[in-house]
Give the backbone structure.
Amino acid sequence: MFTDNRHPEKGIMSAVLGTLSVITLSLAVLFSYKNGGQALVQYAAAAFVAAIFSCIGLVLGIMSRFEKDIFKIFPNIGIFLNFLSFLFVVFLLVLGLR
Protein backbone atom coordinates (compact mmCIF):
# COMPACT_ATOMS: atom_id res chain seq x y z
CA MET A 1 0.00 0.00 0.00
CA PHE A 2 1.44 3.34 -1.01
CA THR A 3 0.67 6.01 1.54
CA ASP A 4 2.34 8.95 3.23
CA ASN A 5 0.91 7.99 6.61
CA ARG A 6 3.31 7.13 9.41
CA HIS A 7 3.18 5.87 12.97
CA PRO A 8 3.59 8.87 15.30
CA GLU A 9 6.37 8.64 17.90
CA LYS A 10 4.15 10.19 20.57
CA GLY A 11 1.48 7.59 19.87
CA ILE A 12 3.94 4.73 20.18
CA MET A 13 5.29 6.18 23.43
CA SER A 14 1.74 6.55 24.70
CA ALA A 15 1.03 2.89 23.99
CA VAL A 16 4.28 1.84 25.71
CA LEU A 17 3.53 3.96 28.79
CA GLY A 18 -0.01 2.60 28.92
CA THR A 19 1.22 -0.97 28.74
CA LEU A 20 3.79 -0.35 31.48
CA SER A 21 1.19 1.35 33.63
CA VAL A 22 -1.38 -1.44 33.31
CA ILE A 23 1.21 -4.14 34.01
CA THR A 24 2.65 -2.27 37.00
CA LEU A 25 -0.76 -1.66 38.56
CA SER A 26 -1.80 -5.27 38.00
CA LEU A 27 1.37 -6.59 39.61
CA ALA A 28 1.06 -4.20 42.55
CA VAL A 29 -2.47 -5.40 43.23
CA LEU A 30 -1.47 -9.05 42.78
CA PHE A 31 1.49 -8.79 45.16
CA SER A 32 -0.63 -6.90 47.70
CA TYR A 33 -3.22 -9.67 47.51
CA LYS A 34 -0.54 -12.32 48.03
CA ASN A 35 0.73 -10.33 51.02
CA GLY A 36 -2.61 -10.72 52.79
CA GLY A 37 -4.08 -7.44 51.62
CA GLN A 38 -1.28 -5.32 53.05
CA ALA A 39 0.35 -3.10 50.45
CA LEU A 40 4.03 -2.50 51.06
CA VAL A 41 5.57 0.92 50.44
CA GLN A 42 7.25 -0.40 47.29
CA TYR A 43 3.89 -1.37 45.79
CA ALA A 44 2.42 2.03 46.59
CA ALA A 45 5.43 3.76 45.03
CA ALA A 46 5.11 1.61 41.91
CA ALA A 47 1.40 2.46 41.68
CA PHE A 48 2.21 6.16 42.06
CA VAL A 49 4.77 6.01 39.26
CA ALA A 50 2.25 4.09 37.13
CA ALA A 51 -0.31 6.84 37.74
CA ILE A 52 2.20 9.45 36.59
CA PHE A 53 3.00 7.34 33.52
CA SER A 54 -0.69 7.02 32.69
CA CYS A 55 -1.23 10.79 32.88
CA ILE A 56 1.77 11.47 30.67
CA GLY A 57 0.76 8.71 28.27
CA LEU A 58 -2.79 10.02 28.06
CA VAL A 59 -1.53 13.50 27.16
CA LEU A 60 0.88 12.08 24.56
CA GLY A 61 -1.87 9.93 23.05
CA ILE A 62 -4.26 12.85 22.74
CA MET A 63 -1.53 15.07 21.28
CA SER A 64 -0.56 12.47 18.69
CA ARG A 65 -4.20 11.87 17.77
CA PHE A 66 -4.39 15.43 16.43
CA GLU A 67 -1.43 15.01 14.08
CA LYS A 68 -2.13 14.77 10.37
CA ASP A 69 -1.28 11.91 7.98
CA ILE A 70 -0.78 9.26 10.66
CA PHE A 71 -1.97 5.77 11.39
CA LYS A 72 -4.22 6.05 14.41
CA ILE A 73 -3.72 2.59 15.92
CA PHE A 74 -0.98 3.47 18.44
CA PRO A 75 -2.60 6.69 19.68
CA ASN A 76 -5.91 4.87 20.13
CA ILE A 77 -4.27 1.98 22.01
CA GLY A 78 -2.33 4.44 24.15
CA ILE A 79 -5.39 6.52 25.01
CA PHE A 80 -7.39 3.39 25.89
CA LEU A 81 -4.69 1.80 28.09
CA ASN A 82 -3.78 5.03 29.86
CA PHE A 83 -7.41 5.92 30.51
CA LEU A 84 -8.02 2.40 31.82
CA SER A 85 -5.09 2.60 34.21
CA PHE A 86 -6.07 6.12 35.30
CA LEU A 87 -9.58 4.90 36.12
CA PHE A 88 -8.08 1.97 38.01
CA VAL A 89 -5.96 4.32 40.13
CA VAL A 90 -9.02 6.47 40.86
CA PHE A 91 -10.94 3.31 41.78
CA LEU A 92 -8.19 2.23 44.18
CA LEU A 93 -8.10 5.67 45.79
CA VAL A 94 -11.87 5.73 46.27
CA LEU A 95 -11.78 2.18 47.60
CA GLY A 96 -9.04 3.19 50.05
CA LEU A 97 -11.07 6.12 51.38
CA ARG A 98 -13.85 3.87 52.60
